Amino acid sequence: MTRDEEKLLRRAIELAVEARSGGNPPFGSLLAGPDGAVLIEERNSSLTDADITAHPELKLARWAARELDPATAAGTTMFTSCQPCGMCAGAIARSGLGRVVYALSGDQLNSLKPPGNAFTDAPSEGPALYEEARVPVEGYYT
């Protein structure tokens, strides 16, 4: 990691401090363009917005998908205070962002939480009803 990248990652951590100061979970992210210039910054606002999806990484991925052409998006780097959760990672992949640099890993984050506060996956079942479920999907991706 270069010094410039460390500076951007430290800014993401500052955004996390700002989120916490504003009454939200302590997470912050920014998106840098191919030249390293900051394109947009976001903070977690899930509590003040009463929106469980208001993670900064998801906000940036949605912005990039709307505002950037695919080539520009592929040249961006997201700097974020913590490793993106599954929801955000999926949005990042679909938005075409080029790279993610994070400070805390998900495991490190969980080690800082009191016991029993880590998120777990919801129980799920499937696949089921393949013949029926494939009908609306078949041919869509061609």
UniProtKB/TrEMBL annotation:
The residue ranges of the CMP/dCMP-type deaminase domain are 3-137
Q: Which InterPro entries match?
A: CMP_dCMP_dom (IPR002125), Cytidine_deaminase-like (IPR016193)
- Top-level taxon of origin: Bacteria
One matching Pfam family: dCMP_cyt_deam_1
Entry-linked PROSITE patterns = CYT_DCMP_DEAMINASES_2
Q: What is this protein called?
A: Nucleoside deaminase
Biological source species: Nonomuraea insulae
